[in-house]
Design a protein that fits this description.
The complex is a heterodimer. By secondary structure, chain A is of the alpha+beta class. Chain A has 6 helices and 4 strands, in the order ααβββααβαα. In chain A, strand 2 and strand 3 form a beta hairpin. Helices cover about 65% and strands about 0% of the residues of chain B. Chain B has 7 helices and no strands. In chain B, helix 5 packs across helix 7 (about 130-140). Chain B is globular. The mean pLDDT of chain B is about 85. Classes of the chains: A alpha+beta, B mainly alpha. The interface of A and B includes residues 61, 64 and 68 of A.
Chain lengths: ~180, ~140
Amino acid sequence: DRVARGTMSLTAHKPYLDAIRKTLTAALCLENFACQLVERHNKPEVEARTSKELLLNPVVISRNESERTLVEGSVNSVRISIKVKQADDLEHLLAKKFVGFLTQRADNFVVLRRKPVEGYDISFLITNSHMERMYKHKVIDFVIQFMEEIDKEISEQKLSVNTRGRIVAHEYLKQYI
Amino acid sequence: RKCTKAGNMADDSGDIGPKTVPDEELLAQIKERESKVSSLISSNTKEALIASLQNPPVATKNQEIKDANAKIVFKVLAAIKEMEIKGAVAALSPDDSDVLMKYVYKGLETQPKMSPSLLKWHAAITAKDGLGTITRALVERQTV
């Protein structure tokens, strides 16, 4: 049952993830661009937002009303924000904890942003220096795989929480039978 | 010394850049487009699509006008069945594909209910005209 559900959600995902992959391939054309206002400074323009001409149009790709991805580009950096599906309170809590766990270790992820953008659950910040060190298609693969995994993880955790709760309740209430 | 207006030399209008169309005229254009599209939608959806994508109000700053035009495009997109998407895209010129891609992104943002079909449109447009349509949707200042 769990395997069937996992594979079914992947195939439903595919147009959504394909669209995100293509949008990222177009948006991740980054070059080094020093700050225009302060000498010798080099900031990711999508975060600094100092000059309008350096920013691209932000684009949202939604799968349905509850899941969406925001891609904000600029000349030297791209910010990708994901809103994960949260059907009920339990998924809401699990998503929050899971995302919190990852963002605490954002240094190890390199491209992860410590705080998600307003209205979203988790954000990536990819800069030109990352693009110089890593393969673009691999970085995009990472982001897409991340999105698949996060859904899988949350549904697995939800299942295990419910199973454990059921077992514990069963054991406890046995004494009253 | 008085500053000469740019384009003064051979030009009669003394105006540089594209002509700015006043909002009322845009609204009139949209009404006309809407009636044209509504009549075509039942007979020839491909023609309806092409008609809805002509002359989008990109230059105006009035969000209501842009939304009004977007409504027409979304109506056409909703009327075209998933099997027909590929054929409809094949009939578009490259400029039309660019405009359509911008509306696809606008739809993904504002009409999440249409997402499944809009994602199919996205795939069809990039299959025909490549990533350039996406790049232009991201980069062009005057949005749809």
